[in-house]
Sequence to fold (169 residues):
Amino acid sequence: MKRCSENLGVISVEKVQENGRSVITNDLIFLDSDLDNQDEVVEHIVEVAEFIGYVDDSETLYQAVKKREQEVSTAIGYDIAIPHGKNETVLHPFIAFVRTNKAFQWATTNEEKVRLIFLIGVPKNSEETMHLKFISQLSKKLLDEAFREKLLNETDKNKIYEQLSSIEI
Fold:
């Protein structure tokens, strides 16, 4: 697989979009999932991300995300978690979205339950704060109750994609 960086160094969001890869893709939106724990959700997302070419080693990304979760849980309230990983196995930055059928406890270290999970994957050689920009923009949108309600109730995957694509990254 051809690396997004093309061995040129730092990757910017603009460079990713020039390469024809969107940060948000229909292929990484999963609605009404029966997954019911952190491990299953992260594993499912990174495996699909590898299958569609956003990641070249799902196990390594899985371990990076889990390591980050051990530092501090990424459950942020409002039934939302934003796990993320930044490493060399991510070929193209992405934001995946999973909506589960039932809320479940995200981490054993707190009681926070989640239903809406956004996993962010960022290449190690991307601009230093790319994942922080993603998290910041996503978090701003998630403060909007109407935005969250649409994520919880919309049944059309394409409408969810349009909604998530409205986030300025």
Q: What stands out?
A: The two ends are 25 Å apart (CA to CA). The helical segments are 13-18, 38-51, 58-71, 130-142, 145-153, 157-165. The longest helix spans residues 38-51. The chain has a mean pLDDT of 84.
